[in-house]
Amino acid sequence: MAVVSRPPQRRDAVSSRRRFRTRTVLRALGIGLAVLVVLGLAAAATGLYVITRDLPSIDVLSDPNGLGFKTAQIFDRRGQLLYELNDPSGGRRTVVPLNQISPNLIKATLAAEDVHFYENPGFDPVATLRSGWIVVSGQGQTGASTITQQLVRNVVLDPSEAHQTTVRRKLREIVLAFQVDQRYSKDQILELYLNRVYYGNQSYGAEAAAESYFGVSARDLDLAQSALIAGLVQSPSELDPTRKDVPRTDDGIPVATKARQRYVLEQMAGHGLITEDDARTAYAQKLTINSIQIDMKAPHWVTYIRDLVEQQFGDRTVYQAGLKIYTTLDLDYDQRMQQVLQANRDVIQQQGGDNAALISVDPRTGEILAFQGSLDFNDQSIDGQVNVLTSERQPGSSIKPIIYAASFLKGWAPGTFVDDGPTCWQDAPGHQWCPNNFDDKFHGQTTVRTALGNSINIPAVKALEFVGIPTATDLATRMGITTWGPDSGKNLGLSLVLGGAEVRPIDMAQVYATFANNGSKVPLTALRQVVDATGDVLFDYQVPSGEQVLDPRAAYMITNVLSDPTAKLFTYGRNTPLIMKDRPAASKTGTTDNSRDTWTDGYTPSLAIVVWVGNTDGHPMNQALSTMTAGKIWPEAMQASFDALGLPPQDFPRPEGLAEGQVCGDTALRPGEPACRTDLFIAGQVPTPVPATATAAPTSAPTTAPTEAPTAAPTPQPTTPPAPTAAPAVQQQPAPTQPPAPTPEPKPQVQPTAPPKPAPTQPPPPTPAPAKPQATSAPATRAQPTPAHP
């Protein structure tokens, strides 16, 4: 078919119209884009104007009195002044010219904080854009602050704005930094910075830091000293070289501080400011840090509060906003607790120890009332400035209540029977772990009540195996242990129930306060109120309702055992001071391998106290047991607390969903004890008596699967086990040459028609069941051999 083409004139006309439309569209798009650009620029300019119209003046940098110091005051709960966070001597903020500051420190500062300081316009555009994108995209926040920006934040911006992490604050900071860069020379800015920056320990400026830490002038700092001081700026409290409550190197420098010094030296070498040989030599140089004497009331508490508020509000706010910090500590009561510790110094030393610590808290409010981090803060011979309460120590048997509480969530109860016999677990290929009891004896069939009350080891290990290590550590973490998390690096095995995994005493106070509060965790708090110089309230503590981290029935059963005098009888005796004469009180002792750490942790409904005794450096005491050290101090501290705080006796409130039932046994009885006793169980899990004519031996296990009692607690509930027996997965070893504790010969039988005895308000001690649970092979669970004692 032939194709008919358009005439040339028409083709030209069509082409012309197309070109016209194209030009029109492009012109419209160009105009629209221009309008958008103009509007965008106008909006940006308007936004920038709104953000920066009330910028503070940078003239303060030229004011010799423009340091902006306003003393922060720390008070106890009754308004008694504990300490003023200022510079009482006036000698640790001396202003010196730049030429009187060591070139080593200048280079180290540039390498650590702003290596392009002499080239940038007061801020780093690339780093700022990268940081802004991270913040806007919700990926977190980064630094990207130049020396000039830090100077602006530390001196020019108001303290209330300086610690904010908003885009608005960052933009204002950049604008001010640019203004400073335009007005002052680089050397002037660097001099201002090095005389204002905070290096920790009340040391503002290079001269103060050099004098405080090394006893020299800033002009005399060598390379190793300079790199260490320059590294402190990142986090003065965390990197404080005088800290002794953190891991330290052989020459006494905190590990984190030494690592920061290494980073600074590597940065200096990487940017050509020093040679690599210089860096290696400086890092290897042994440094001696001056010991800084601190004169304050409740010194461990004050340093704890200082670190806390610096983290929460920022250094600038703490030291320049004129804060009034009202804490939870009761100074008079805290000093009374110090007297209790000091009165036992001879006892501690006789047992081969040199130090002790104590913390007292109100379980209902979470408030810390007394805080003794060592026997004597100013005693350098025992490293008294080390705060033991925040240091990691092995807890010994004081950790066992957590494990048994976890077993109660899975069906065990105080009346559950466990076989305390020779048992071994696979520890490593070709190696078995065969723990022993503190008295080198085995007691046969015994109840959880007797095992926990007398701190018998084998049943505790079986309880942990029954529960499972992940379940137990999860409960411990929810109750307050902060050192067993997945990122702790600890190889947690069965030995943790005997105290083989480190904890902090302050965390143990949280755990025992949670038990005292029937499983409701009210987080410990040290602050009541923080007010700035203008009267604005920055923090005001309101007691939270608490988080039910443990079923109240499980918590109460632990309390019932720990406060039962007869449950502790054959280990602690009838006249143990751990039993308060005028009120119910629950307590648990703990002694670690070689008596390195001894504990007594306990509580009433309104008070929880944790006491630790040992040596600061961790070397063993003289085979001391907790009953001779911490166990002697704890009851004295409790009684003194009742008097000082005016605490009346209180019963532990019993939650709903519990029931009493008969448990009967033919072993582990003492002469004159009844064959059957009443004990506590979760409602619906009370043992059913076995007829006397039955061929099977009686057991405390229900004959049918019991049902759970309903509860409103929003925590994991106890599950019904097939039969509450001894912890499974054990391997029996041959009986020891030393026989177990003697047991009565007759075997009691439970008559099917015999009604259970009426349940008393406080259940008497239980007896073991005659049924011996069957053992099975143990899994290969890693456990470090750490015998625990009461």
Keyword list:
Penicillin binding protein transpeptidase fold; about 10% strand; 5-stranded mixed beta sheet; about 800 residues; 5-stranded antiparallel beta sheet; alpha+beta
Describe the structure.
There is one protein chain. With 790 residues, the protein is an alpha+beta fold. The protein has a domain at 67-320: Biosynthetic peptidoglycan transglycosylase-like (Penicillin binding protein transpeptidase fold). The chain contains 23 helices and 19 strands. The longest helix has 45 residues, at 8-52.
Q: Could you give the topology of this structure?
A:
Layout (H helix, E strand, L loop, with lengths): L7 H45 L19 E4 L5 E5 L17 H11 L11 H12 L10 H10 L2 H4 L4 H17 L2 H11 L9 H9 L8 H10 L22 H16 L5 H9 L14 H15 L1 H6 L3 E4 L3 H13 L1 H6 L4 E7 L6 E5 L27 H9 L8 E4 L2 E6 L2 E3 L10 E4 H6 L3 H11 L1 H11 L25 H12 L3 E2 L5 E5 L5 E4 L6 E2 L3 H11 L6 H4 L13 E6 L5 E8 L2 E8 L15 H16 L12 E7 L11 E7 L48 E2 L58
Parallel strand pairs: 1-3
Antiparallel strand pairs: 1-2, 3-11, 4-5, 4-16, 6-9, 7-8, 7-19, 10-13, 11-12, 14-15, 15-16, 17-18
Low-confidence blocks of residues: 87-91, 692-787
Oligomer: single chain
Mean pLDDT reading: 81
Look at the helices and sheets and give the structural class: alpha+beta
State the fourth-level CATH superfamily of the domain at 67-320: Biosynthetic peptidoglycan transglycosylase-like
Shape: globular
Q: In this structure, how is the largest beta sheet organized?
A: 5 strands, mixed
Quick overview of this protein structure:
This protein is of the alpha+beta class. The protein is built from 23 helices and 19 strands. Residues 87-91 and 692-787 have low confidence and may be disordered.
